[in-house]
Amino acid sequence: MEEPTKILVVDDDPVNLMLLETILQQLGYQVAKAVTGTEALEKAQTEKPSIILLDIMLPDISGFEVCKILKSKKELSTTPIVMVTALGDRESKLKGLEVGADEYLVKPIDRVELLLRVKNLLKVKAYNDYLEGIKDLLEREVNKRTQELQEAYKKLDNAYLEIIQRLGRAAEYRDDETGEHIQRMSRYCQILAREIGLSLEEQKEILYASPMHDVGKIGIPDSILLKQGPLTNEEFEIMKRHTIIGAEILSGSQHPVLKMAETMALTHHERWDGKGYPHGLQGEEIPMEGRICGLADFFDACTSHRIYRPAMDNREVLEVIKRESGRHFDPLIVEAFFDIFPEIQEIQKTFQDSRAKSTLKILESLKKGDE
Hints:
By secondary structure, this protein is of the alpha/beta class. It has helices spanning 14-26, 37-47, 63-72, 90-98, 111-173, 179-195, 200-209, 222-225, 233-240, 242-250, 256-267, 288-302, 314-323, 331-339, 341-350, 354-370; strands at residues 6-10, 30-34, 51-55, 81-85, 103-106. 61% of the residues lie in helices and 6% in strands. Strand 4, helix 4 (90-98) and strand 5 form a beta-alpha-beta unit. The longest helix has 63 residues, at 111-173.
């Protein structure tokens, strides 16, 4: 059975309170009562009335103030409020409307007028409640669809980034470099970007873009790419083209990671002093991601084993980097590199080449044998 509509009546006069209660109960409404503004505010929260009949003259808080407070509360803002008072002047009516009252009744109350105003306001409230329900339903549906779209975009973005990383690894498989080189190099780039103050978004883009820096090696003949001895001048000129080839492979995309990867591929062999390739850019003409990638790639290449030379010791490479600051490398990047070198070493240990891991295991087993 449906509960009767509840109406909150607020009046400090017991006679008026009883009169209104009697009229409303005869019409089939359930009545909650309050004799002060404070009590009215409390019962409006607990009783959840469909309409509030509010006297202006109350002993503690004026009806105007009570109305203003009730309308400021989200859960009560749509509850119709009828100001009931002996004050019939225009100024009082305007003030009541100003604080949010929906109707205005002047004492003595006319039973028929009260009935009509209550019925009309209940219709309006029912319509508003219906609209509010539709609004909530639409908001939930929009939020659901938005979440689904975000999840779909995230999956698509992850797949996109995985393709990027695999394309980067494809270039490494044609070289003597390993998958660990990609892991180390990309993380070196990321923490360098962090150290020089790039945004979190830029750090993320650099992390994902840097594995693509040598993708252009796909276009270099094996006879040059895998040559064990030093390259001739002609061979080196061909090798240098991997920067342009890589940029061409990656060009044309609007995805920020691929756009950054294109820049890295093209500029990671440029030098601070302008003696690099392919375009001889100098100083800050070289994009920041190219400068970061250039130093990270140099360090990892020097400290990794190659078919034509053994890996250099960290200390040797650091001396070279320090000496080349302001010539080969941006001094700002060099300073950042030295500041985070303990983190660089941790990345080295975490992503060792498979041959380095094998050697380490042999040394550990020999050490145990000696014990």
